[in-house]
Amino acid sequence: MNQRKSTLYRMLFLSVMLGMSACSRNPVTGKRELSLMSTEQEIAIGKESHPSVVASMGLYDDKKLNDFINQKGKAMAKVSHRPDLPYQFYIVDSPVVNAFAVPGGYVYFTRGIMAHFNNEAEFAGVLGHEIGHITARHSARQQTGQLLGTIGMIGGAILVPQLGQNLDALQQGLQVFMLKYSRDHESESDKIGVEYSSKIGYDARQMANFFSTIKRISDNAGQQVPDFLSTHPDPANRNTKVNQMATAYQQQNKGNYQVERDRYLRMIDGILYGEDPRQGFVEKDMFYHPELRFQFPVPKGWQHQNSPAQFQMTAKDGKSAMILMLAKGNSLDEAAKTLAQELSLNVLESQRTTINGNPAYVMVSRQQTQQQQGQQQQNPQTALQIGTWLIQYNNAIYALHGLAAANDFEGAYRSFRPVAENFRALTDPEKINRKPERVQVKPVPRDGTFKEVMTALGMPANRLEELGVLNSMKSDDRVTRGSLIKIISR
C-alpha cells in the first residue's frame, strides 16, 4: 500500500468514526442520521436570531391575533414529535405573504399571510408545516449536508488533483443537489403539516387550498420559477399532493375536522394590509416618513425596500446603492468617529456643512477588508467606497450612505448627492396623515358573482384580482347574501 492510499484510508476511517459519534435518531423519521447540531445548539440559534428578526421586521401589535397563534401553536406543539422544545410564536409586521421557522422552536407569521388566510384550517396547515421544519430538524440536516458537501469537494480536489480544474462545475452541481435537498424538506414538512393540523382538529385539505393562493400571488408578481430550480415545490403540485395526503389521513382517521371560516374572518377584521405608510412610503420618486417627519428623493428607476431598521435603494444595474439608518452618537463628530471605527473605514475626505438648515457632516471613505487593513494599496479600484451624509434632525442623527466600488464611485456619487442634499422636513398634511389600508370584513349584500358583489361594495375594478387573491375567489365565483367577505379600505 503506497503512502497516498494509506492517507486516504485513514481519512475515510476517521470520517466514519466521527459520523458514528455524531449520529442521532431523527424524531420524525425515526432514522439514524449524522447531525452536527445538538438540541441545545438549535435552541441557542433561535434565541440569538430572534432579536435580528424583530429588528428587521418589527412585531405586529394585535393581542387577539397573538393570543390565537400562541394558543394553536402550543396545542400543536404538544402533539408534535418534539413537545419539549421552548416554542414561541410571533406575528411580524410585514406585508409580505410568508411564514418561517428558526431552529429551537421560533415560528413567525407575517401580518401579510394572516390577512390572506380565509379560515383557521388554512392557518393550522401552515403552522404545522413550519413546526414540521423544526421537529424534523431540517436546519440541522441542511447545515450538516452543506458542511459535508463542502468538505467532500475540497477533499476530492486535494486527493484527485484533476478535480480541482472543474471545481466551479462541481460547486454548481452541489448547489443543485442542495436545492433538491431543500425541496425534500418542504415536501416532508407538508406531510407533517397535514398530520399536526389534523391532530388538533382541522381539515388539512384547506392547507392544500392555500397553495392555490400562493400560486396566484406568485403568478401575479411575475416571480414564478421553474420547479427544478426552486427551493420550494411548485404550489400547484403541492396543492394536489397535500390534498391527497389530507384525504388519505381523514379516511384512515375518521373525525369531525373543522374549517372555522367565519370565526377567523371576524378575528382579522381591521388587520393592516400592504405597506404601513406610518413607517415610510415611496410615492412619485419621493420617500416620505410621516412619523419622523422627513422626506428625500429616490433616484428614478431605483428599486427600494423599507424596514423598521433602515431604508434601502438600489440601482437597476446593481452597481450602486444607498441606505438610510440611524447613526450612533450624540453629536456629528461622535457619530462620524463611531461609524469609522465600527465599519473599519479609511476616511479619505470630510467636511461640515448644512443641508436645508440642518447641521450635517459629509465624508468619503473606503472600507478595508482585514487583508486590506494590513495592505491598504491592494486592489484599490475594487474596494468598496462610501459617501456618507450625517444629518442632525429632530433630536436624532441620520446616516445616509451611498455605496459603490471605487472605480464606479465618481459616477455613482452624482446620483447620491441630490438624494442627500434634498433631505428635508416633511410638512405636507396629506402625507403626514396618510392612513394605512386595512382588511375589512363585510356581510355580502346580495347573491351574485364575486365581481358583482365587489362592485356593489364599492371596490374599484382594477383591484378585482387582488381582492380575489385575498378572498381565494375568482371573479365568476358565486357568493351568497349574508356570507362574510373581505374588502380593502382606509
Task: Give structural attributes.
alpha+beta, 21 strands, about 45% helix, 7-stranded antiparallel sheet, 4-stranded antiparallel sheet, disordered N terminus, globular, single chain, about 20% strand, about 500 residues
Which secondary-structure class do the elements indicate?
alpha+beta
Helix content: 40-55%
> Low-confidence parts, pLDDT < 50 over ≥5 residues?
1-23, 141-181, 223-231, 370-376
User: What is the number of strand segments?
Assistant: 21
Give the strand order of the largest sheet, numbering strands 1, 2, ... along the chain.
10-11-12-16-15-14-13
Strand content: 15-25%
Radius of gyration over C-alpha positions, nearest whole angstrom:
27 Å
Outline type = globular
First-residue to last-residue Cα separation:
79 Å
* Tally of contiguous helical segments: 16
Mean pLDDT: 82
Largest sheet: 7 strands, antiparallel
